[in-house]
Amino acid sequence: MYDLDAAPSELNRPKGPDPQRACVNCQNPASPSDQTVLRPRTLSETDAAILQLLAAGSSSVKIATHLHMSRQAVDYHIHAMLRSLKAVNRPGLVSKAYTLGIMVVDSWPPRVWPDCVG
């Protein structure tokens, strides 16, 4: 598991692929030089709007008011996204969306990549 012949700075790193070069959902994971990410088209336009507002910290009531929906409809969409992305709770849903590359990393307010909406 650990390379004992390595330099002291390398001793605490486990052998195997470099975690900083690892990619999620790549076209060819065996080739780390090609880091093209394939984002899943898993969200409807309504789901994307709800996810963006949820990631910004809005409550179900505020999301419902903003999108002119009922609170129950917002909760339905959130629970459907929880199931489809296999997340446990709302913070987990947002975290999973960032991990899967569904959401843009360096933006505020949070945004969903347009190619993930379909």
From TrEMBL:
<feature type="domain" description="HTH luxR-type">
    <location>
        <begin position="36"/>
        <end position="101"/>
    </location>
</feature>
<protein>
    <submittedName>
        <fullName>Helix-turn-helix transcriptional regulator</fullName>
    </submittedName>
</protein>
<dbReference type="InterPro" id="IPR016032">
    <property type="entry name" value="Sig_transdc_resp-reg_C-effctor"/>
</dbReference>
<feature type="compositionally biased region" description="Polar residues">
    <location>
        <begin position="25"/>
        <end position="36"/>
    </location>
</feature>
<dbReference type="Pfam" id="PF00196">
    <property type="entry name" value="GerE"/>
</dbReference>
<feature type="region of interest" description="Disordered">
    <location>
        <begin position="1"/>
        <end position="37"/>
    </location>
</feature>
<dbReference type="InterPro" id="IPR000792">
    <property type="entry name" value="Tscrpt_reg_LuxR_C"/>
</dbReference>
<dbReference type="InterPro" id="IPR036388">
    <property type="entry name" value="WH-like_DNA-bd_sf"/>
</dbReference>
